[in-house]
Specification:
This protein has 16 helices and no strands. By secondary structure, the chain is mainly alpha-helical. The radius of gyration is 21 Å and the shape is globular.
Length: 401
């Protein structure tokens, strides 16, 4: 007779599928978003670049501001309602993007998308709180791997759909994918251990901070997240340009750039759950330190590559260091936060992530404009070293206090 799976394992299985589908939905529109914008008006090259950046960033700005409010609501009402709110809201918003007739309408919907953000972060929070802490590293690593796999596959799916159908139909299909996430979560995800926060003092951030055993450790981890995202995203705007420089006019720049851009995600997908399980055994902080050291060496070496093969190998190896960092920071947040405020802490972490998403590309573009592409990688290596130092000061020293 078969024994029934524990609820936390079923939740992990279902939400791994849901975040995989959501990862596809979120990333499949990115490659053609500028092209879609160009169909909504008669823009100059400069205007098109402006609108592309403006519309792309709008979601992150709104999400960074509103995430803590959703986190507070998650601790009061539960993580499952927040998952349902995010998936249904974004299903409607992304579907409506296929109906817009001008860029202002698209911009407004991208801002509204930011309001409904939080599907993946609340899925992480639910898994974190329902999973026994001794398995939380492996569980969160599994969620990270599923998200990464979906995000990697998304551009390929988006490209195929736009080739077969059109930009507008692709938005409708994307909305449909998020609707699938809604129904998966509605019928198959169960939040059994949730205890609503009713204490008035926890309405304010100051009250939440007082509940923490070591506020410096938690805020050190939030800062770590921000700098990880800034460092990783400082590279993104210049990868294709660096590839073009290395190819020196020979070869398919777009295809090779796409392959190289995907390589870190493939490595992260392969390694995140394994590093999470290892962290559960030897200490998550040790995995993070190894990630910092590896990332510093790899970013520095990338500044001196002579061809795209060397660049591809180093970017693939960077994916393994990524698997040592962001998912493991979430695990440390889980292990060092009371369950009743996990939603709030994860929402703060999401805000830190979004701020890093905004700061990173600006940093990379500025450095490459003032100096060179190689200098972006050297300075990014320096940023990772700074992150390691701050991690040791804020986190390592407070682990056993």
């Amino acid at each position: 007779m078969k024994t029934e799976k524990p609820i936390w394992k079923r939740n992990l299985f279902v939400l791994s599928i849901a975040v995989f589908v959501a990862g596809i939905a979120f990333s499949e529109i990115m490659p053609f978003l500028p092209l879609y914008i160009s169909t909504l008006g008669n823009f100059t090259h400069q205007q098109l670049n402006f609108w592309s950046g403006f519309i792309y960033s709008g979601t992150f700005f709104v999400s960074a501001i509103i995430s803590p409010w959703w986190g507070k609501l998650a601790d009061k009402k539960g993580r499952k309602p927040m998952i349902l709110r995010a998936s249904l809201g974004m299903a409607i918003v992304l579907g409506c993007m296929g109906l817009v007739t001008n860029v202002w309408q698209l911009f407004a919907l991208r801002m509204l998308q930011g309001v409904f953000a939080g599907f993946i972060s609340n899925s992480n929070a639910l898994v974190a709180t329902e999973t026994p802490k001794i398995h939380s590293g492996q569980a969160l690593g599994t969620i990270a791997s599923s998200t990464t796999a979906g995000t990697l596959l998304g551009p390929l799916v988006g490209g195929a759909l736009t080739s077969i159908f059109s930009y507008r139909i692709t938005f409708f299909i994307t909305g449909g994918l998020l609707l699938i996430c809604f129904f998966l979560s509605l019928f198959f995800v169960h939040e059994d251990d949730f205890k609503p926060v009713t204490e008035k003092k926890l309405d304010k951030a100051s009250g939440v901070i007082k509940e923490l055993h070591s506020p410096q450790l938690i805020f050190g981890l939030l800062l770590t997240t921000l700098i990880i995202q800034a460092a990783n995203n400082s590279i993104n705007p210049i990868v294709s340009l660096y590839v073009r420089q290395l190819l020196n006019g020979h070869g398919n720049v777009v295809f090779i750039s796409g392959v190289i851009a995907a390589l870190p995600g493939i490595a992260t997908f392969l390694a995140a759950s394994r590093f999470g399980a290892l962290g559960d055994k030897i200490g998550t902080h040790k995995i993070i330190i190894a990630g910092f050291i590896g990332a510093t060496i790899l970013f520095f070496l990338t500044a001196f590559v002579q061809n795209t093969v060397e660049l591809g190998i180093l970017r693939f190896l960077v994916g393994f260091t990524d698997a040592c960092l962001f998912p493991q920071v979430q695990t440390m947040l889980t292990k060092n936060s009371p369950a009743k405020i996990t939603g709030r802490i994860f929402s703060w972490n999401q805000s830190a992530m979004y701020i890093g998403n905004i700061v990173g590309p600006l940093l990379g573009s500025t450095i490459s404009g003032l100096s060179s592409y190689s200098m972006v990688f050297i300075i990014t290596a320096g940023i990772v070293v700074l992150n390691l130092i701050l991690f040791r000061i804020n986190v390592i020293r407070n682990i056993n206090k």
